[in-house]
Predict the structure.
Amino acid sequence: MTFEIKERNAAGRLCKFTTKHGVVTTPNLLPVINPNKMMIPPKEMKKRFNSEILITNSYIIYKDATLRKQALEQGVHKLIDFSGSIMTDSGTFQSYIYGDIKLDPLEIVRFQRNIGSDIGTILDIFGTPDQTKEEAEQGIKETIARAKKSVPEKGEMLLACPVQGSVYPDLREHCAQQLSLLDANFFPIGGVVPLMENQRYPDLVRCILAAKRGLDPSKPVHLFGAGHPLIFSLAVALGCDFFDSSAYAKYANDGRMIFQWGTEKFDDLTELPCCCPVCSKYTTLELRELDAKERTLQLALHNLHVSFAEIKTIRTAIVGGWLWELVEQRASANPFLNDALRVLREPEHLHWLEHYEPTSKKTALFYTGPQTIHRPTIYRYHTQLFTRYKPLLKTTVVFPEGTKPYSTFYSREIRHILKKKNVNFVVDSYLGPVPFELDEMYPLAQSVFPNEIDRETREKAQQVTDRFLKNKTVIRWDKRTTIKKEKSLKQNINLDIRRISAVADMQFGRGASKALLNGEITIIKSKRTGKIRNIFCGGSHVMSMRAKDGLFTLKLDGGQRLHRGLKYPLLRVVVTNDAVPFVKEGKSVFVKFVTDCDPNIRPYDECLIVNEKDTLLAVGRTLLNREEMLAFRHGMAVKTRESIK
Ligand code: GUN
Ligand code: ZN
């Protein structure tokens, strides 16, 4: 099996997952196939939806003599006539629905292996939300014990070990940690169906976050029994890779149609608000005239079209960098999902999410409502402002929100004030305080907020601004403000140098500007836009400022300066000696060569690639954070930009 990250956004990832039956792109949806009654045959699934993977139930096959014989003789792929990847479940869910079933936990694992399942599931204990903590604890103990005993039986099959623990985050995290220690390959989050049925999305979010916290980040995560597309985007943003849907068939049998915003009864619809092939072909009247079985089939097809469309939307959002925007939009369709999103504001969750949040994105941050200010990117900005940014001067002039970039909008005022007094300039923005030096840096310039802001956002931003300006001499600027001329006004500090120093410290950490800029500085600006492009120091090119996000890309010389100026492990990605010749040729660093990494490195950060003796080899840009670099076995860790020959 291989599993590697290709693209990412929020804590979500777009990966390539390989089984013996092919490559699967994640996030993905596994349609549930009932081997007894295949409403839509797997071959059709492949043809219509390009399904790369599906899930069926080994217990149903096992307890039916005919199916069982056929599966053992020909394999599960022949049995259901599907050439892609097949995951099998174990009977846990049946035992939850119908009460105890007689089944040996190891027997069902061996059976899944013997019928050639690509991913088999252990017989875990379904932990229901109404369990006491003691019951839940007993449950995960048994699940972990069964997982341990199942691993040696898996053979070439990939083994899925569900994370249980009812609604107790500490039990979920513990279960996830214990399972991650085993040689298992796939981690569903189990026991969540009752939460989803009752729209207990805040609890669901807590379960996902607790499990993810304990899980090996390099393994695929499946949200067991999640079939409604409403929650897909949020689950993906928290790091889920797979969903399975029996909902498409169940809802269709019940005459219900799935939509992106929820579910509608077909009988209530006068029109079909959808343009999938089914809804394009039929009017409601025509659908009503079909015989019952055919109508159910058409509704099921529609349900799958809508579900896969949401998966594709999510993948597009990951690549485009607007997954949080999508999540917030979807949450606005459902009050309980709205509540779930609020859970993410809690400091421990923000802290975890920030670890996985890319440093920069292709697209601007779009405000969708009061949740936007609580995004991990903004949380990071606020945190770094207090830990990495240092105001230069005693007095701060505070401007009200204006047009971006603020230093252009307020350029006349700035020039006027600097003739009289050396001060800091800060904009009291909807995102919190923005020192003018940082106003072109992601996400400050690359964010779009409405002209009229909601009260909650305003209060949050105000809180941060007040904390930032506390104990400082502050002049709140308006048209009537007059500044007294200082008697001994020293020469103004170069504004461009203030900008590059401040951005360097924010991006690389305190002390970075000192390391990077010790020498005579020459700044090259774009002739067309007037913006800073290249920075030379002591005659050599140390870094460039990207127009897109106002952050620096490191040149080799800049890397050397940071390497000298910042102590190990700051900004480092350490590679084994085996990798050194490749890095020197400018090849990218694959995760299997990484032995260590600065814990403060985030996805898409600039970094220093060093050998095990901390000798600088190259500069590059990361794709992964430390936890991922140390856990993944396949894929790229750092894209090398420039190497020492
Ligand atoms: N299907 C839905 N939920 C579960 C679960 O918790 N465990 C297993 N094995 N299958 C499920
Ligand atoms: Zn449709």
Observations:
- Residues 152 and 183 are 9 Å apart (CA to CA).
- The pocket of zinc ion (ligand 2) is lined by residues 274, 276, 278-279, 302, 305 (CB under 6 Å).
- The longest strand covers residues 2-9.
- The chain has a mean pLDDT of 96.
